[in-house]
User: Which sequence fits this backbone?
């Protein structure tokens, strides 16, 4: 229809408004295909009929989502039966229903049989046959809604599909087009099953496998049928030791898989010894251990993970914070969502009886059912089309007069509230948070048990008990009911969803049902006074009444909206009134009373969120100003920097599976709590570059490498040095399903006993009330930070403590000091609320732990030991006598709240092994025990560890150009240079700027915030002359800049020179409080603000302002102008700022000298020196004491290598450079002892002690040689792996001959020899042999090739003689000598050649040919020997061997071709010669061959048979 808008276009355009931000859930349509392939679309975190718009609650604004698939339209035929299926990854309690919406957003059909709605339903059912309406419906949406009754009577998931239901369909009956992936034969689909088209299966070919047979998975792959309920069932696994790239199946691509075609470079070895290979690891009890290392040169990160499971396992990361920047707090802002609520298993609070959104009149399961005649306007659902002015007008018109009570919206609409119906709605508070623990207010029982009958509901009234209305939303045990067919209710007149809120019943009364002779549905039957049974059905036997009941189960759409303002005000007033009647104070942001379990959360999203369209930050995911980003270019990505955000939000997840000696690995992503899916579905790519894995002894073991600089923004994160990442883990639960609260599997309402199958990626299990360790968090990780040395700890920044460990991204730090009798602790967090240190029974588990919990109150605060019996406020029991504490106190400081106490050692608490602890805090709440959200983390403390001086290496700062200052950093885009020097009592500053106005530096209370900061402001030319002063910035106005003495400065001055202003002053360290981290003490990074004005000296608004942290502990750069730039690097005590040697990087050694990949470490006492020779090699390392300086021969050397379980290290005499000349010195160097060798990561270390004596004096300078090689045996080290050292152990002076980088000469020698002996000289020989017919071309070409080749070979030989010094029996060198000597004879032989026909010509030719061919053969062999040596020294593998072999093969093929040509020419020439001779004979005898004489054969040529003429 030209120029018009079809119903489909109109509907899809509106649907785009609803879908522009998708989310995900535990239920997802399989057929018809869904608009979003995500399975966590619930009615609390999302809005719209399909849940495709984030509500903003529970931090859903962070979700990073794919585009909805609006082209996936399924065509169906009117009146036919269609089998609808869905994926289910969590066996929730309750049932399902379907609804059909037309292109005008009206309900046209509902499939809602009572047997598949409520507690009795089969919780594992995943398909049903629906009878379609007889009326056409183009541009329609089919919506699935799935209950999750364990999380509340009205908590639902949804999933939508786009459908066309038409009469005149060309589709074959029963096939529905086979989803475009097959053909219909006799009413059944025959699905495509090939690599070109894909491997599809299912009734409508709706599912796709990765393979059908092993060859589809590559040469080293296996196609394994996992029997998974969720596609793909057949999956590609790689054999142990092999890997492959990701490939896409189908055209267009519809599914990624992996073809196993290459050998993995990752050696699995023994997983129990992986700790020896990696210096960094993370531990999750005995569930999972993660080892990792960063390969900066390859820009890859390598993981090795050992998971205690035979099921799938996974780890995930997301950007959490940038180093030096504090994450956003988890406490709600004023008017915000309130406290995050619990999440035992990633779902809403059990028993909370939550409703989807504000004032949703949604029916409780089994409660009063009615068909509401009105539906909300879809523009309101989208939340974007109402302007701010309209909202303000609505508020103004609907607002009640002062003191006038507001009528309940339900009552206003003529709806009578029934006993047991919940009043509240699921707000952000009712949703899961990171830890999944119930909030203190109105949270469920920890174990998810049903609330007893008669417990107060939302309004304090008893909740009606019954199977369909379970107490607390948890169903009782019973048998399942599985429904295979539903004819549905099809309306003759659709129910519009755009009716106004006042005229509801009128529209509904006009609707009629198609089915039978049923009268029009009476949606408000219950309201009209008809009694209802316990399960909510009308109390009548009339079948028509039952149909009305079915209709009444339709969703109430306003439950998916933000609450209208007039209803919110009415509800707020009503709640305030009820609270006051009970004598309870009213909280502005959150209820602080301990509501009974089962009560609904007090705060609700609509009650606190802005109305749709108000543009409140955090309400919608598209509000980009809400987000913080890290990285640049393709690495730019969104930080989830709010600590309240659930750990699964925006996780880059690697999932792996293993079946004995085969494994499978996927690079996946999840934006929420959805099942992770491959990056392909988000528009990304697989970033795993190598992997290897297997399963054995109950463990799944994997090694893999990923790119650190990913270009996959939708599905991956770059691994950057300045970013901290939240890292989580999970394992499958097929062996023993675990849910809390109970799922349908625990209540017996299931038909599929194998719902969780091994290696099928479904819900991980674990959580509150369970013992299965299905998931957890490793906390915040920076992958570039050095691992803490065993037995060492990070030094505490508090004066009275030794060690510290940070958690939750640095938001809380635990300090401790251990003595003989016990441990003193200090827990410091950045807020003002309560703080706790827990001692758990089970590592990481809160329930069962004993905790020291306190908050600031009075002089010493309130501190007590509690027993954590449950994850509710009622479960935090005071008066616990499990252990005693002393010296307990809590105080608020400038940097936060600090809890201090001492615990003595006892039978259950000691420092013999690292101790598992828990730390938690609340940002603002004190004695209310308000739920901490994600501000809780496990922490392992080694109480016996000693502080490490270099636990946190600090890079030197940039050098200052000013005299008397050490460091400098540029600020304000180059407008200011901050110079400083750290002294004992403070920091000396010089602020250098070309601005003519005032200059300021400030110390903010909150990083980046001006208000509240203390500032030093310098005015170069004010009315009273130059001035430098201290000010308090109380507001952003000039009146708020108040002189202050909060900080102490001295030596202040202003100087102008060279067109610049220099402001100099010294800020003294704050020493007013020794019990906490000081406001300014020069320890760690200090947040600062800088500002200048280009011209104004008065306090006007600055023209440039910025902030950045500066670490005043940074050492100045090491500047050593005396260092020579020759072949020897000398560093003496005079060269070093501390007057000593280069500090050793090995524990137990003082000094070191480094030369390339080799380092010598030493520690000296009066009688001996302990030496450690360390080299970057997996092979041997040797250190020799020379007789002749810098000479290997004649030295006595200590050589060792670590060969698995049998390391070898001995003293040798080096009599020659040959291996046979290296012999064990039985009696030499008897002064050497404690000889050991070890392999650490990629390095080998040989250590020993040598005593001083007459031949080895303490104060002499000793000349030594070192060497290392790649093998665990004696062998040639190569030219680049040896050099000499001069060391004076007493003075610390050392020098290393760094030598010359010989690799370039190796490369030059190799290429010259390959070009000459591998190409030119053989080609010259081939031409001389096969092209004699091309005289004289062959001769000149042969001469040119041989001369040029020999010249190049001579150059290559000279390079080897000049630069290399191989051992005497070096085979490659010996053969090279022989070949070159013979090659010199060839030109000489050529000049001496006799001419043809002269004597000795034949002998000369034989010698010339023989010598030449011997040279060629020996040279070709020697090139392979050289490549062997090159690989040995450079570890490049066999690639050069293969390439050179291919070249020789091609050269040989050319030779055979030319030889065949030459032989053909010779044969033709011989034939011509024979013919010529025969002609001569004929001429002489007078016999002509043309006379038809029979030509005798050669065999009979000498016979006596007479010749006869032929007729």
Assistant:
């Amino acid at each position: 229809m030209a120029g018009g808008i079809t119903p489909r276009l109109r509907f899809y355009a509106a649907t785009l408004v609803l879908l522009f931000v998708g989310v995900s859930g535990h239920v997802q349509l399989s057929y018809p295909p869904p608009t979003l392939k995500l399975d966590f679309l619930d009615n609390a975190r999302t809005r719209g009929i399909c849940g495709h718009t984030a509500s903003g609650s529970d931090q859903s604004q962070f979700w990073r989502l794919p585009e909805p698939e609006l082209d996936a339209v399924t065509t169906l035929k009117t009146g036919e039966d269609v089998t609808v299926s869905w994926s289910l990854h969590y066996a929730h309690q309750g049932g399902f229903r379907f609804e059909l919406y037309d292109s005008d957003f009206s309900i046209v059909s509902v499939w809602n049989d009572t047997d598949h709605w409520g507690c009795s339903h089969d919780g594992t059912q995943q398909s049903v046959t629906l009878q379609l309406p007889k009326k056409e419906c183009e541009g329609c949406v089919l919506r699935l809604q799935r209950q999750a009754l364990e999380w509340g009577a009205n908590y639902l998931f949804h999933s939508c599909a786009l459908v066309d239901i038409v009469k005149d369909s060309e589709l074959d009956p029963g096939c529905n087009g086979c989803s475009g992936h097959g053909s219909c034969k006799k009413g059944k689909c025959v699905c495509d099953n090939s690599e070109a088209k894909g491997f599809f299966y299912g009734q409508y070919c709706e599912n796709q496998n990765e393979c059908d047979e092993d060859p589809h998975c590559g040469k080293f792959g296996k196609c394994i049928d996992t029997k998974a309920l969720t596609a793909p069932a057949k999956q590609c696994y790689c054999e142990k030791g092999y890997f492959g790239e990701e490939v896409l199946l189908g055209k267009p691509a519809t599914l990624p898989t992996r073809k196993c075609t290459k050998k993995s470079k990752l050696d699995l070895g023994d997983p129990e010894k992986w700790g020896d290979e990696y210096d960094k690891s993370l531990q999750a009890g005995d569930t999972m251990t993660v080892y990792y290392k960063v390969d900066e040169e390859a820009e890859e990160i390598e993981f090795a993970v050992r998971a205690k499971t035979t099921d799938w396992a996974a780890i995930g990361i997301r950007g959490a914070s940038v180093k030096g920047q504090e994450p956003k707090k988890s406490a709600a802002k004023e008017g915000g969502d309130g406290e995050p609520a619990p999440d035992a298993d990633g779902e809403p609070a059990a028993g909370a009886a939550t409703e989807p959104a504000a004032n949703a009149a949604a029916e409780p399961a089994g409660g009063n059912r009615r068909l509401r005649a009105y539906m909300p306007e879809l523009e309101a659902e989208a939340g974007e089309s109402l302007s701010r002015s309209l909202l303000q007008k609505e508020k103004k018109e609907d607002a009640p007069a002062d003191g006038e009570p507001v009528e309940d919206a339900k009552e206003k609409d003529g709806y009578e509230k029934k006993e047991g119906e919940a009043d509240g709605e699921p707000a952000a508070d009712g949703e899961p948070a990171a830890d999944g623990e119930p909030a203190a207010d109105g949270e469920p029982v920890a174990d998810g048990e049903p609330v007893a009958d008669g417990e107060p509901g939302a309004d304090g009234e008893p909740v009606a008990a019954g199977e369909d209305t379970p107490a607390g939303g948890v169903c009782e045990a019973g048998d399942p009911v599985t429904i295979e067919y539903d004819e549905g209710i099809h309306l003759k007149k659709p129910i519009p969803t755009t009716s106004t809120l006042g005229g509801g019943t009128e529209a509904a009364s006009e609707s009629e049902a198609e089915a039978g002779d049923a009268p029009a549905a009476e949606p408000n039957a219950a309201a009209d006074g008809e009694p209802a049974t316990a399960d909510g059905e009308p109390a009548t036997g009339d079948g028509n009444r039952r149909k009305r009941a079915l209709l009444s189960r339709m969703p109430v759409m306003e439950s998916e909206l933000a609450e209208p303002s007039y209803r919110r005000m009415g509800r707020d007033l009503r709640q305030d009134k009820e609270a006051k009647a009970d004598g309870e104070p009213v909280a502005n942001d959150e209820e602080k009373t301990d509501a009974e379990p089962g009560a609904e959360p007090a705060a609700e999203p609509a009650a606190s969120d802005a109305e749709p369209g108000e543009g409140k930050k955090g309400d919608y995911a598209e509000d980009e100003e809400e987000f913080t980003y890290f990285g640049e270019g393709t690495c730019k990505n969104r930080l989830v920097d709010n600590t309240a955000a659930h750990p699964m939000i925006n996780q880059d997840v690697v999932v792996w599976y293993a079946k004995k000696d085969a494994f499978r690995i996927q690079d996946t992503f999840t934006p929420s709590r959805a099942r992770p899916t491959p990056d392909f579905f988000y528009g990304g790519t697989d970033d795993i570059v190598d992997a290897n894995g297997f399963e054995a002894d109950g463990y799944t073991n994997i090694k893999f490498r990923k790119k650190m600089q990913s270009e996959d923004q939708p599905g991956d994160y770059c691994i950057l040095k300045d970013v901290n990442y939240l890292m989580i883990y999970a394992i499958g639960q097929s062996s023993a399903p675990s849910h809390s609260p109970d799922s349908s599997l625990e209540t017996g309402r299931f038909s599929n006993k194998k719902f969780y199958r091994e290696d099928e990626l479904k819900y991980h299990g674990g959580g509150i009330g369970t013992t299965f360790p299905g998931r957890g968090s490793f906390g915040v990780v920076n992958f570039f930070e050095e691992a803490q040395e065993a037995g060492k700890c990070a030094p505490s920044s508090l004066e009275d403590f030794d060690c510290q460990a940070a958690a939750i991204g640095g938001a809380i730090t635990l300090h401790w000091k251990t003595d003989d009798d016990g441990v003193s602790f200090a827990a410091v967090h950045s807020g003002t609320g309560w703080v706790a240190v827990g001692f758990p029974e089970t590592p990481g588990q809160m329930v069962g732990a004993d905790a020291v919990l306190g908050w600031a109150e009075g002089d010493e605060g309130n501190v007590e030991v509690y027993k954590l019996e449950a994850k509710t406020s009622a479960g935090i029991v005071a008066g616990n006598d499990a252990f005693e504490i002393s010296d307990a106190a809590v105080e608020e400081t400038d940097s936060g709240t600090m809890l201090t106490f001492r615990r003595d050692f006892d039978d259950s608490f000691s420092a013999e092994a690292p101790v598992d602890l828990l730390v938690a805090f609340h940002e603002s709440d004190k004695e209310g025990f308000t739920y901490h959200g994600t501000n809780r983390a496990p922490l392992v403390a080694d109480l016996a560890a000693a502080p490490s001086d270099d636990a946190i290496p600090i890079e030197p700062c940039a050098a200052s150009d000013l005299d008397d200052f050490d460091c400098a950093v540029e600020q304000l885009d180059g407008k200011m240079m901050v110079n400083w020097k750290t002294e004992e009592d403070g920091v000396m500053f010089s602020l250098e700027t070309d601005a003519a106005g005032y200059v300021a530096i400030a110390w903010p209370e909150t990083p980046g915030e001006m208000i509240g900061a203390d500032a030093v402001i310098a005015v170069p030319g004010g009315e009273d002359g130059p001035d430098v002063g201290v000010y308090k910035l109380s507001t952003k106005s000039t009146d708020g800049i108040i002189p202050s003495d909060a900080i102490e400065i001295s030596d202040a001055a202003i100087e102008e020179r060279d067109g610049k202003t220099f402001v100099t002053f010294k800020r003294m360290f704050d020493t007013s409080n020794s019990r906490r981290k000081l406001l300014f003490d020069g320890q760690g990074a200090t947040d600062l603000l800088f500002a200048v004005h280009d011209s104004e000296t008065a306090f006007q608004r600055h023209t440039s302002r910025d902030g950045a942290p500066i670490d005043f502990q940074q050492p100045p750069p090491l500047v050593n102008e005396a260092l020579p730039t020759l072949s020897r690097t000398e560093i003496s005590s005079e060269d070093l700022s501390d007057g000593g040697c280069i500090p050793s990087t090995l524990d137990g050694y003082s000094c070191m000298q480094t030369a390339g990949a080799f380092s010598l470490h030493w520690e000296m006492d009066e009688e001996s020196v302990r030496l450690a020779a360390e080299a970057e090699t997996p092979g041997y390392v040797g250190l020799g004491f020379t007789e002749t300086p810098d000479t290997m021969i004649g030295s006595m050397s200590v050589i060792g290598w670590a060969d698995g379980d049998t390391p070898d290290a001995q003293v040798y005499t080096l009599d020659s450079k040959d291996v046979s000349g290296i012999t064990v010195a039985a009696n030499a160097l008897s002064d050497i002892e404690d000889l050991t060798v070890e392999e650490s990561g990629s390095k080998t270390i040989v250590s020993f002690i040598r005593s001083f004596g007459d031949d080895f004096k303490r104060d002499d300078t000793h000349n030594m040689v070192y060497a290392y090689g790649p093998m665990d045996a004696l062998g040639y080290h190569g030219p680049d792996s040896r050099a000499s050292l001069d060391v004076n152990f007493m003075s610390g002076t050392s020098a290393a001959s760094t030598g010359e980088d010989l690799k370039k000469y190796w490369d030059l020698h190799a290429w010259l020899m390959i070009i000459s002996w591998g190409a030119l000289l053989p080609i010259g020989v081939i031409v001389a042999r096969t092209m004699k017919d091309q005289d004289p071309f062959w001769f000149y070409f042969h001469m040119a090739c041989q001369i040029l080749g020999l010249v190049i070979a001579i150059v290559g030989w000279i390079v080897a003689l000049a630069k290399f010094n191989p051992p005497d029996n070096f085979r490659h060198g010996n053969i090279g000598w022989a070949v070159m000597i013979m090659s010199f004879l060839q030109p000489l032989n050529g000049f001496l050649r006799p001419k043809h026909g002269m004597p000795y010509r034949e002998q000369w030719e034989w010698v010339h040919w023989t010598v030449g061919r011997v040279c060629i053969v020996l040279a070709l062999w020697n090139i392979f020997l050289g490549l062997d040596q090159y690989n040995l020294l450079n570890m490049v593998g066999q690639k050069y061997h293969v390439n050179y072999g291919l070249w020789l093969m091609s050269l040989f093929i050319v030779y055979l071709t030319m030889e065949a040509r030459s032989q053909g020419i010779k044969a033709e020439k011989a034939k011509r010669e024979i013919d010529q001779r025969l002609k001569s004979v004929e001429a002489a005898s007078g016999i002509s061959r043309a006379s038809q004489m029979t030509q005798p054969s050669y065999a009979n040529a000498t016979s006596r048979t007479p010749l006869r003429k032929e007729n």
Notes: The first helix runs from residue 7 to 19. The first strand starts at residue 27 and ends at 31. Residues 688 and 706 are 4 Å apart (CA to CA). The radius of gyration is 42 Å.
